[in-house]
Amino acid sequence: MADAMKESRLPKWAQAELASLRVRLENAEEERDELREGILGEPGTDTVLDPYGSAPINLPKGGTIEFRIGYGQEDIVRVRVTDEGLNINGNVGIAVLPKATNDVVIGVRRD
Q1: Up-side HSE of residue 85: CA atoms within 13 Å toward CB?
Q2: How confident is residue 74, by pLDDT bands cut at 50, 70 and 90?
Q3: Helix intervals (H) in the chain
Q4: What is the spatial distance between Cα 40 and Cα 43, in angstroms, rounded to a whole number?
Q5: Which among 57, 82, 53, 77 is positioned nearest to 65, based on CA atoms?
């Protein structure tokens, strides 16, 4: 409310410029969302990259995410959603280290 009062005191050209910038911002946000949806997956997918970030990215449903971990990052762990749950596989042995009832760490094993 205070911002609107301050804005109403500005010259008409400045008020018009602010209104134009708001419209351009709204259009840019809509275009960004459409591009993200069209290029980076449908809403409602089961695979989302950076879900807590400011711009989560929807990946294709059932998409596989590959992680390179370990010394030199030569060990690969792949994760994807299946009808049975999460499928996790890698190019070496996988170690599942429970941290809590709802938290585990996935590592690699070289025996």
Answers
A1: 2
A2: confident
A3: 2-8, 12-39
A4: 9
A5: 77
pLDDT of the residue at 1: 55
Tell me the mean pLDDT in the region 69-93: 88
pLDDT tens, residue by residue, 4-31? 778 889 999 999 999 999 999 999 998 8
Provide the token pair at 111.
């025996």
Q: Helix or strand or coil: residue 68?
A: strand
| CA 15 from centre of chain | 35
Q: Give the list of residues 6+ apart from residue 95 with CB closer than 8 angstroms, or none.
A: 106, 107, 108, 109
- List, in order, residues 6 or more apart from 58 with CB less than 8 Å away: 36, 37, 40, 41, 42, 43, 45, 47, 48, 49
CA–CA dist 96, 108 (Å, integer) = 8
